[in-house]
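From the shared-data thread, chain only:
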Amino acid sequence: MPFSVSAAPSRRGLFFAAAFVLILVAGGIGWYVHATGTAKPDSSDASAAATNAGGEDILLGLAKAAVSEHRLVAPAGSNAYEFYLSVLQLDPKNAMVPDHLSALFADACNDVERAINARDVDEAQRELSLLRDYDSNNYKLALLGSKLSAQRMVMTREHEAQAAVIQAQSESTR
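Structure, as tokens:
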């Protein structure tokens, strides 16, 4: 009788680990901004600008570290694309970030393709969505989306075939 192990506990653990990392990053940003804040309480605009600048510097540092560790689109919550996109949310006029994202795009697409080939379709979907946040009209992303869809279909057919075999075995033992 075949034995199936659910991947839900490992995914749940990965989710909690990613959430923990995000909380640590947010706490670190808050601590850094608080510790280095030089704005007077009266100047809320200057304080907000200082907070954004401090947050941007931290996120840019985290993004550079992620790039050097080859964490372009994975793991969730601790990768270069998410850090760079967060910088763009803080400062949409930041001209440096789109250049970095563009330079990393081909390698990030290769990471998505590796996830598809490894049959990790949920992770590949998350990574593909992340790249689409940067450039939704890129033809390479359309090709990867098609490849991901085809991989899902292949896996579905394989699961259906396995279910049919199990059902046939079950009926033959009656």
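Residues 139-172 form the longest helix (34 residues).
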